[in-house]
Design brief:
333 residues; binds fe (iii) ion; globular; alpha+beta; binds zinc ion; 10-stranded antiparallel sheet
């Protein structure tokens, strides 16, 4: 019997996803379950979306026991999906063809729309973990989508602060960031629909954010042109990261979109990349002060750090051109 539940964290006001029976999931060097011809994937595809065989959430969840009086438990209802971005076993978003990356973006939008029709789903969270240091169990290029029965704390916080900003100053916080930063020194790249910046408020060493110029809430609202330009800025961002050091850089990429139930006109969709390398041979850990208190420390001026990224951007754009892809936008100088 396996159990899927969400437990209320009464001190933090958020939910913990608890799933028993996931301990048996495959760990690394087994035969790749995502390569073409594997039972899960079959043949004849370029990008596909599948149900995760070892989901943290279930559409038929069972609760293990009554909660203690100070907490609460609910069924761990939800879906966990895997999006495989290429039939090739090796690679990253900068080596996969533009056609595939554009289709990948389209699938994330379609899944957002599909999953949001489920009355039990309140939030759709697409993310991509890359690299063993991030804890990736399968090397084959892939992303994940969690369809959650609650709105995650970080998103609640962003909603709160976007609406506070709107009340205090009118307009949208991220729209204002876009118009100020697109002329600023923390800008790395921009195309017609998106900008890539090292944010003023960066927390992880080379954390970068992608902000759409248009004020919108969900991936499913992107136009066909915007989807292509998002694919462009994703390829460019990842090529920049992979040109920073002499190795392919581990990262987390997360899509922050609005909750899918209710209306959140003040929210502005965006994508965040977190990287853990301070230098080629030094890692940044979310340790005592960061994880224990949610207070990040940054050991260089972000305005200096961005110079390393600008150099990597030049190299990254060159590498994309060498692979036959012409970026649609421009780096900042
Ligand atoms: Zn594979
Ligand atoms: Zn906005
Ligand atoms: Fe965010």
């Amino acid at each position: 019997m396996s159990f899927n539940e969400i437990r209320w964290h009464p001190l933090l006001g958020t939910w913990v996803i608890v799933a028993s029976g996931r301990a048996t999931r495959p760990w690394r060097d087994v035969k790749c379950p995502f390569c073409p011809g594997a039972p899960e994937t079959g043949e004849g595809w370029d990008v596909i979306s599948l149900d995760n065989r070892y989901p943290s959430l279930s559409t038929t969840p069972v609760i293990s026991a009554e909660p203690p009086s100070f907490s609460e438990v609910k069924p761990g209802y939800g879906r966990c999906k895997v999006v495989i971005e290429t039939p090739d076993h090796e690679g990253d978003l900068d080596t996969i063809s533009f056609k595939n990356v554009a289709k990948y973006v389209e699938i994330l939008g379609k899944e957002t729309e599909e999953l949001s029709k489920d009355p039990g789903i309140k939030y759709v969270a697409p993310f991509r973990n890359k690299g063993e240091l991030i804890g990736v169990s399968i090397h084959h290029p892939h992303s994940q989508i969690y369809a959650l029965p609650f709105v995650p704390l970080k998103i609640e916080r962003e909603l709160d602060y976007m609406s506070r900003y709107n009340k205090a100053r009118g307009g949208c916080l991220i729209c204002d960031v876009v118009s100020e930063e697109e002329r600023g020194r923390r800008l790395l790249y921009s195309n017609r629909d998106f900008i890539l910046i090292l944010p003023y408020y960066v927390q992880w060493p080379h954390e970068c954010h992608i902000y759409p110029r248009r004020h919108l809430q969900l991936l499913s609202e992107l136009t066909a042109d915007e989807r292509e330009n998002l694919a462009d800025v994703l390829m460019v961002s990842v090529s920049m990261y992979n040109s920073l050091f002499s190795f392919s850089l581990p990262y987390m990429m997360v899509v922050h979109q609005a909750p899918v139930k209710g209306s959140y006109p003040e929210y502005h969709l965006h994508i965040e990349f977190y990287t853990i390398h301070r230098y080629a041979d030094k890692l940044k850990y979310a340790a005592g002060i960061e994880w224990g208190y949610w207070a990040f420390t940054y050991d260089e001026l972000p305005e200096n750090r961005v110079l390393e990224l600008k150099e990597a951007m030049q190299k990254g754009l060159r590498r994309l051109r060498e692979r036959g892809y012409s970026p649609r936008g421009n780096p900042s100088l």
